[in-house]
Amino acid sequence: MDIRGAVDAAVPTNIIAAKAAEVRANKVNWQSYLQGQMISAEDCEFIKKFEVAHSEEKQTILTNEGHQCARTFLNLMAHISKEQTVQYILTLIDDTLQENHQRVNIFFDYAKKT
User: Fold this and answer.
1) What is the band of 4 on the pLDDT scale with cuts at 50, 70, 90?
2) CB-based burial, 58-72: b 16+ in 10 Å, e otherwise
3) Which residues make Cβ contacts (< 8 Å) with residue 84, sequence separation at least 6?
4) Residue 52 — φ and ψ, nearest 5°?
5) Which pLDDT band, with edges at 50, 70 and 90, does 8 fall under?
6) Which residues contact 11 (CB under 8 A, 6 or more apart)?
7) What are phi and psi of 36, to 5 degrees?
8) Cβ atoms < 10 Å from Cβ of 53
């Protein structure tokens, strides 16, 4: 693939992909949410670890801490109302499920246990 092909492949082809890329670029300051007591230390620690993990690392995290993942995502959605942060959380969830559609079972299993 020549350089032009590589650039074309990296450019989002639709508005939703472009918006998701924009949302991903705006990292969230989780520490400020923790200091404001809007999220727990456990959720803060998990999300900070999860958002920087690569695909293989995420799979390991999800295998070992799937219940915590679902709990953290749902807690964040329940306690944060800032639009930009909610978009970021939803994009993280979408990215996680797009990598492996079977990961939706993490949320189903969590829902059954709560």
Assistant:
1) very low
2) beebbeebbebbbbb
3) 23, 26, 28
4) -100, -5
5) low
6) none
7) -80, 5
8) 13
Residue length of the chain: 114
Q: pLDDT tens, 66-105?
A: 999 999 999 999 999 999 999 999 999 999 999 999 999 9
Dump strand ranges (E) for the chain: none
What percent of the chain clears pLDDT 70, i.e. is strictly above it? Answer: 89
Burial 13-50 (b: 16+ CB within 10 A, else e): eeeeeeebeebeeeebebeebbeeebbbeebbebbeeb
Domain ranges of the chain: 27-113
